[in-house]
Write a structure and sequence with these properties.
Chain A is of the alpha/beta class. Chain A contains ten helices and 15 strands. In chain A, helix 4 links the parallel strand 8 (about 145-150) and strand 9 (about 170-175).
Chain lengths: ~325, ~325
């Protein structure tokens, strides 16, 4: 059997895309001891990928030139030499951008389909959803009735963060780019307001109009000028969960934050975080998220592209803001 | 008896000074019910004063034009109609810039001279010292053996923060302006290193040389480019206590912070704070500080100017960085 792979060819300056990758095909490797041979079904396309292929890598060792692009995904087990896995099992693991990888059993998790569907595991039970959960629960300590602002609110993490805010009976405002995404936030997800940052000259004033009493929590997925505008609207005791900096990852010049003092707000706290630090609590989070899915209170719009070939283009779409919803590639199945 | 007062004449743009104030003399007011009539002995000159007289005031209602300049100080009671106070008592309170004010008993505290001398109460038992204590203990949660960087380390708050770091067996580095202050930090206080920011072209690199493994805690008294350079040197799990922004208070253009992500450091937290929030724990802090003074482990260099008249000039010195040590005005006694 053939393993079709997408390899990193060059490191991007700015937005990554097809020019940074190349394909090859090699004979699929039979599983060694402790390994699984799988067929990749879905691949998650995430902002963190940009840092994995950057010149100076961020929080994790980068992808080497010529290596398979790293990615998390869902796969079906074809053969197994790892305890606890059998052919036909559906698993989550580090598939990378390849059709028939061999995975380490200890880095792979069997999906519990009693919690949700295959698509749910790519969406509201996936890593993006866990990121939203721990960012709000642990980092920001969101409380009922507070005012929550979420940037990139139509994106993979942002959608879930915004809905957790609604479930927690908060006043929730989302920022997104374009009228379509904003309509989705207001009409489909039921946010109290949505701000189209592309249509606003003065984002600080737009946030103030939507949240006249200021922000208790800002869930930041983008950094840069959006973060600055949010900082200018913080209330006393506000918390900022810094999840991502998608605007800054590809920026030629880093943006200078001017409102760090929160324009005089007292006792403000900014924290960045990594979802992987919460590994021991994933089950707690998934149980909560699954219950909300069953109650019909938590949804996730998936933006699905068809075919492994589309992965490089999908990554570019993410940084151009062309996706509405959690971006995934359907690689097989 | 005459009360000599210094009044706010105009709001400063940039560094405040004598041109923003004027003096007058009025008959001293006899104390009403619940009040004390006092002679001011020492007045504290603090960075927060700049925000009290700014156009747009920060965390507290500003000083009105024509009003007595607000200040904390130490005074001797001349007559009392407040319970618990008698002539001759030494008290701490909101004296303002005036020689013979009338104070509210409930806003005034009798000094416990068993904890330290009158000068200790202006220095290592005063509000600046409490600020350092709660900033490190509560906001930054400094732990033994960690690396601590303190900016404005020769100033009122910075000196105490640096010494608390030494008492806690930390690697302590201070930033100050000029060789004299740096020699004081190294030779008198015993810091592991001192960085003269005026002599460094690349403050980020200078911090890296002094703290090659990065910072666990940054106690920030200045904001602006110094904060940015510190952020670039954070380790994973670093905490930044944002105490003051003296460089930004008088800056014409706010500086844009570029390194908020901590250059990839994980789990970093930035928090600003107000010492007044810890009012209920002042006694705990003063007991600890007094014990360290008795052990000879905690000192404070006071920079004392003589005469109430010097207060406006003293305020200007503070923002020009011309003081070494906690700046106070001796108003009487």
């Amino acid at each position: 059997m053939i393993n079709r792979r997408i390899l990193l060819k060059s490191r991007p300056t700015g937005i990554p895309g097809e020019h940074n990758f190349e394909q090859d095909e090699i004979p699929a490797a039979p599983p060694g001891m402790g390994e699984l041979f799988v067929e990749t079904l879905y691949i998650s396309i995430d902002p963190a990928m940009r840092s994995w292929i950057a010149q100076t890598s961020g929080y994790t060792a980068g992808v080497a030139l010529g290596a398979v692009m790293r990615a998390g995904g869902i796969a079906r087990v074809l053969s197994s030499r790892a305890e606890g896995f059998a052919p036909g099992d559906l698993v989550q693991g580090r598939t990378g951008w390849q059709s028939h990888p061999t995975l380490l059993g200890r880095q792979t998790q069997k999906l519990d389909l009693s919690l949700g569907s295959l698509e749910d595991w790519m969406g509201p039970l996936g890593t993006s959803a866990l990121t939203a959960y721990f960012g709000l629960r642990d980092i920001a300590a969101l409380k009922p009735g507070e005012t929550l602002l979420v940037s990139a609110a139509a994106g993979g993490v942002g959608q879930i963060a915004a809905q957790i805010g609604l479930i927690d009976a908060c006043h929730v405002v989302g920022i997104a780019g374009g009228p379509e995404k904003c309509a989705f936030l207001r009409d489909t997800l039921g946010l109290h307001a949505a701000i189209d940052y592309k249509a606003e000259n003065d984002l600080t004033a737009a946030i103030r109009r939507a949240c006249p009493e200021g922000l208790d929590v800002y869930f930041d997925n983008v950094g840069g000028p959006t973060l600055d505008a949010a900082l200018a609207n913080l209330r006393d005791d506000a918390r900022v969960a810094i999840c991502g900096r998608i605007s800054q990852t590809v920026a030629a010049e880093p943006y200078g934050i001017r409102n760090l003092g929160g324009m005089g707000a007292r006792r403000i706290a900014l924290r960045n975080f990594l979802v992987f630090d919460y590994h021991d609590r994933y089950n707690e989070a998934r149980a909560w998220l699954a219950a909300r899915i069953r109650e019909g209170k938590l949804h996730q719009k998936l933006h699905i592209l068809d075919g492994l070939d589309t992965a490089p283009m999908a990554l570019g779409m993410l940084f151009k803001g062309e996706n509405t919803g959690k971006l995934i590639v359907k690689a097989g199945g």
